[in-house]
Design a protein that fits this description.
alpha/beta; TIM Barrel; eight-stranded parallel beta sheet; globular; binds 6-hydroxymethylpterin-diphosphate; EC 2.5.1.15; folate biosynthesis; dihydropteroate synthase activity; metal-binding
């Protein structure tokens, strides 16, 4: 059974792993860019991920890959227009991966129920008021700088402490704008303005993000740090590394996993959960 909104928002207390399948309606995403731009292809991919056990489908119309170009709200809405209602009609719970309140509003009006904002409300502060008005859960992610420049020369004195401080500040800003604290999800932002050692430290110590008291989402899927550890260049061959990183995060208390390969994640968490339930 796919998770309910309550299951998702209480997952940090229950330990239930929530699998979020990625649907990028973009020409340029680093792993699946250009594959799901047509309505039929996007809906078929969403249906496949639902059948494989996805709890949420995260739909985005703007790539946030390092060096990526911005996409206007009108263009994002145009890309999402035919696809969002069709994916909603297929029975999926949808989160909208955008930093723009107009795009988020359009998505909430046409079938999305969760907002996934990789800028944590910095790109467009009106996104907080929107989430508050609709009672929509919102994911706030850490990013150093912006996608265009974030990998230029990322530096931290203490990456885990700095990411936690940032997330606590953005959480407080969202609450000040009217978002109910229980509806806030936090994400350390794997790959967003981070070198290999920063990504590994955040995964190793994700329990400190969890200690902020919110469900924690992680998105290690197929990312470059897996290639840096293993020497595997092709993103779609980084599935095993994705699972290793996801399971490490789950042991640290993160519970929401944004992945390209839903079937593999569902299988891995079923086994991990069965082991964990033994006395
Ligand atoms: N990563 C990406 C996009 N959105 N959202 C959250 N909350 N956390 C993440 O780690 C995250 C995210 C980047 O991955 P992808 O969508 O596969 O690629 P692209 O940005 O090139 O579309």
């Amino acid at each position: 059974m796919a998770a309910t909104l309550d299951d998702i928002l209480s997952s940090h207390r229950t330990g239930r792993a929530i699998v979020m399948g990625i649907l990028n309606v973009t020409p340029d995403s680093f792993s699946d860019g250009g594959r799901f731009l047509a309505v039929g292809d996007a809906v078929a991919q969403a249906e496949r991920m639902i059948a494989e056990g996805a709890d949420v489908i995260d739909i985005g119309a703007e790539s946030t890959r390092p060096g990526g170009e911005r996409v206007s709200p009108a263009e994002q809405i145009d890309r999402l227009g035919g696809i969002l209602p069709a994916v909603a009609a297929a029975g999926a719970r949808i989160s909208i991966d955008t930093t723009n309140s107009e795009v988020a509003r359009f998505a909430l009006d046409t079938g999305a129920t969760i907002v996934n904002d990789v800028s944590a409300g910095r790109d467009d502060p009106a996104i907080f008021a929107l989430a508050a008005e609709r009672g929509a859960p919102i994911c706030l992610m850490h990013m150093l700088g912006a996608p265009k420049t974030m990998q230029a020369d990322p530096h931290y004195d203490d990456v885990v402490a700095e990411v936690c401080d940032f997330l606590a500040q953005r959480r407080d800003a969202a609450v000040a704008a009217g978002v109910v604290a229980d509806r806030i999800i936090l994400d350390p932002g794997i790959g967003f303005g981070k070198r290999l050692e920063h990504n590994l430290a955040l995964i190793r110590h994700v329990d400190r993000v969890v200690a902020l008291g919110h469900p924690v989402l992680v998105g290690p899927s197929r990312k470059r740090f897996i290639g840096e550890v293993t020497g595997i260049d092709a993103p779609d061959r980084r599935g095993a590394g994705t699972l290793a990183a996801s399971l490490a995060c789950w042991r640290g208390g993160a519970t929401i996993f944004r992945v390209h390969d839903v079937a593999a994640a569902v299988q891995a968490f079923a086994v991990a959960r069965a082991i964990e339930s033994m006395q």
